[in-house]
TrEMBL record, chain B:
Residues 1-30 form the 4Fe-4S ferredoxin-type domain. Its cofactor is [4Fe-4S] cluster. The keyword Iron-sulfur applies. This is Ferredoxin. Pfam families: Fer4.
Length: 515, 88
């Protein structure tokens, strides 16, 4: 889609959201006085200083990811280790989605791009460097970029993702540049398991292989994590779940990283298809199913806050999570753009976002209050089509992903998202894609959309998934709880019978194109 | 013998470039190349040729057999050898 048209659309969407916000705020006003962030949307058991730092960070706060955007700049192509799930002919599979080569930028080009995006997307609050290789294997380019951005756009938060091998050597620079958050990918703390994931590392001018390599890597990762914690720099840990290799072991990893001060653990499914050309892909190593992933996340949940909204973003992603606008910001386009960094405009916009966010929380709070007193052992999953802002505002046919919520009498809890291929192709629905979408949300009882066509509607009903469009453009959590209440009522009256649904597949294909 | 980069396999990841102790590696037309005259196979600096050890694509940084043997390089990789020589 043409960039200008696309931008126009977003302005309109923002205005629509503004209207929504007002009306919802009125409806919610009665109880909003005691409204606080619900446990799932908010602070949870995070310490207050940590919560303050992350509450507007789309990658760290489930709630913020509906409202704030991030971008990555691909300035770091080199890597110092080899992972079996990565084929560096393409992007890094661990921090970015595989299959497409990114445009490599110099630090100067990167800064220009950051300013162009920040001007166009005022809710862009976070800049990350995550490869396509390892940022700390490219320290000069990475730190130069951060320095230039800190100077030109001081309100933007900086974050860094690394495999951790070089981390202990760079802690002082990370602290000096006031990098807000660091993410380390830690897939094992047992070198025997590590040897199955990492064929080699390059360390101190030497190539190490097998258990030796994995031992050095895990020691350096954990040491790096400890050093970050000592200096009070927030650190999240990413792990790739590889069935039969590290799946059970990740519970151990979870304990190890928690005890060393990680504040968030993000377990992501292995993405591996033969066409990606990775060692795992070629060997036929499968990724986990949706329920396997959720079960592992649940098993780790008690230990440390789990992140479930990770999109395994590309090293050059731009925009809200799940809504990639990078096609609007190619180097050619960025060079042509008229860039005026306006801090005040950004602040004003973000204040409006905060109002909207508070209204959303209040609405969900109200709805939860209505349900208090209800007792039912039923829990079920529903899928939601959204473009952000916490609203049900996407057509079934246009959805690139569905967000999944677990509903119970204690409310609606976000548990993950499912990527799908867009069903509607220039006005026509594609049969194959519809069945793939249904496989992707097969464990859900209902799907919430702003609009849906007759044909997919009847197919969904046949598959036992209820298409729900009566809450179009309303807040997700509030609507999901309201629907769940009526569901429980119908079960009580004997109109419907509650049945468990089966598992769903995690999409392995290469990734959604922007636009 | 100096090293060379098989350009059809190079992913231009740039991992090799900063590691070369002799600044023999540079980018040319989207791929990386080694200037044969500058390459010492890393003898005297490191135990392994750095470009080959760091390159993610196997058999991309390889010995260039088409060129005459490099004068200063020894097949026995003793990192101290060259040092010893230059001291005397
Ligand atoms: S750290 Fe990233 S770029 Fe490096 S090998 Fe692993 S997945 Fe690939
Ligand atoms: S072998 Fe060593 S000296 Fe020769 S190009 Fe590679 S890194 Fe440079
Ligand atoms: S390390 Fe290998 S792939 Fe990377 S630039 Fe050098 S020769 Fe090319």
């Amino acid at each position: 889609m043409n960039a200008v048209v696309e931008r126009g659309k977003h302005v309109k969407a923002a205005m629509d959201n503004g209207r929504m916000m007002q009306s919802a705020a009125c409806r919610a006003s009665a109880k909003s006085a005691q409204a606080s962030y619900g446990s799932q949307a908010g602070q949870g058991d995070l310490p207050t200083e940590v919560w303050k730092k992350v509450k507007n960070h789309p990658c760290y706060s489930e709630d913020a990811h509906h409202h704030y955007a991030r971008m990555h700049v691909a300035v770091a192509p080199a890597c110092n280790i080899q992972c079996n799930y990565c084929n560096r002919k393409y992007d890094c599979a661990n921090e970015s989605r595989p299959g497409v080569v990114s445009e490599k930028l110099t630090p100067e080009q990167a800064v220009r791009k950051v300013l162009a995006v920040a001007t166009t997307i005022p809710q862009m609050t976070v800049l990350g460097i995550a490869g396509p290789g390892d940022p700390l294997a490219n320290p000069a380019k990475t730190f130069k970029t951060f320095e230039l951005v800190a100077e030109a756009a001081p309100d933007i938060k900086l974050c860094l993702s690394t495999n951790g091998l070089a981390l202990p050597d760079h802690i002082d620079t990370i602290a000096r540049l006031k990098i807000d958050h660091v993410t380390i990918t830690i897939n094992m703390v047992d070198p025997e398991i590590g040897a199955k994931i990492y064929p080699w590392i390059f360390f101190n001018h030497k190539r190490y292989t097998g258990i030796d390599a994995a031992r050095i890597l895990t020691d350096r990762q954990l040491q790096g994590l400890e050093m970050l914690s000592e200096r009070g720099i927030l650190c999240k840990v990413n792990s790739v779940m590889i069935p039969n290799i590290n799946d059970d072991h990740l519970i151990e990893v979870n304990k190890a990283v928690k005890s060393r001060g990680a504040f968030l653990h993000n377990i992501m499914p292995l993405i591996s298809a033969p066409e990606h050309g990775t060692v795992f892909g070629l060997k036929g190593q499968r990724g986990p199913t949706a329920q396997e992933l959720k079960a592992l996340q649940d098993a780790c949940g008690g230990e440390l806050k789990m992140m479930r909204h990770c999109r395994q973003c590309r090293a050059d992603a731009v925009g809200l999570l799940g809504e990639d606008r990078r096609a609007e910001f190619t180097t050619d386009q960025v060079m042509k753009m008229d860039v005026q960094y306006d801090l005040e405009m950004r602040k004003a916009y973000q204040e409006r976002v905060e109002h909207e966010r508070a209204a959303k929380v209040a609405a969900a709070q109200n709805e939860r209050a209505e349900m208090s007193g209800e007792m039912s052992p039923i829990t079920l999953l529903v899928a939601v089509a959204t473009k952000g802002s916490g609203l049900i505002n996407e057509h079934f046919g246009h959805a690139k992903e569905f967000q999944v919520y677990e509903l119970s009498t204690s409310g609606a809890k976000f548990v993950g998202h499912r990527r799908v291929d867009v069903y509607c192709q220039s006005g026509y629905g594609e049969e194959d894609r519809l069945s793939a979408i249904m496989r992707g949300i097969h464990d859900c009882h209902a799907v919430f959309i702003s609009k849906i066509g007759g044909c997919p509607k009847s197919n969904l009903i046949k598959a036992g998934i209820e298409p729900v469009d009566q809450y179009a453009y309303e807040f997700i959590e509030k609507s999901a709880i309201a629907w769940f209440r009526s569901y429980l009522d119908k079960v009580k009256r004997g109109e419907i019978q509650h049945v468990q649904r089966s598992d769903a597949a995690i999409r392995q294909g290469s990734l959604i194109s922007a636009g | 013998m100096p090293f060379k980069i098989i350009s059809s396999q190079c992913t231009s990841c740039s991992a090799c470039e900063p590691l070369c102790p002799n600044v023999a590696i540079s980018e040319k037309g989207g791929s990386f190349v080694i200037e044969a005259a500058k390459c010492t196979e890393c003898v005297g600096h490191f135990d392994e040729p750095q470009c080959a050890a760091a390159c993610p694509v196997d058999n991309t940084c390889v010995v260039d057999t088409s060129l005459p043997r490099y004068q200063g390089a020894s097949l026995k990789r003793d990192p101290h050898e060259r040092h010893a020589k230059s001291c005397c």
